[in-house]
């Protein structure tokens, strides 16, 4: 069942968190209760798609590892059905190749590694809302994943890893 942190969804950007860990979702709701967002929560990809079918979502924050439909499939569906939604991935996936695969997915704005510092999460959500509303993105988010992948060919492995982490991994 979706949970709202506030009721005025007409004037506030909507952020939907999708994670199968309900305790984490409750913590996120408490953490962001004073932020200028409408917070929606879903414990599955199916529930997230149901919410998005009836409520416009500005920012979607998805865990990758979920039962039934995983975060990869959800991102693919959102890219087709809701291309205006800014997508973030928040996951404990430690595999660097998996992270790069997610970031290469052109509909993913940022990868947020769990656990995340609350201030960093708030900043990333604000940056995402800014991106969704057509505002100017902060300088550190202007480089696209495609551009960074092209840079990989011209940088040493250490330089690429550092640049990748600075631009896409929170």
From TrEMBL:
- SUPFAM superfamilies in the cross-refs: CheY-like
Superkingdom classification of source = Bacteria
BP-aspect Gene Ontology terms: phosphorelay signal transduction system
Under InterPro entries, the record lists: Bact_response_regulator (IPR050595), CheY-like_superfamily (IPR011006), Sig_transdc_resp-reg_receiver (IPR001789)
Q: Which residues form the Response regulatory domain?
A: 14-129
* Keywords assigned by UniProt, alphabetized: Phosphoprotein
Q: 4-aspartylphosphate is carried by which residues?
A: 63
Q: Which Gene3D superfamilies match?
A: 3.40.50.2300
Q: What is this protein called?
A: Response regulator receiver protein
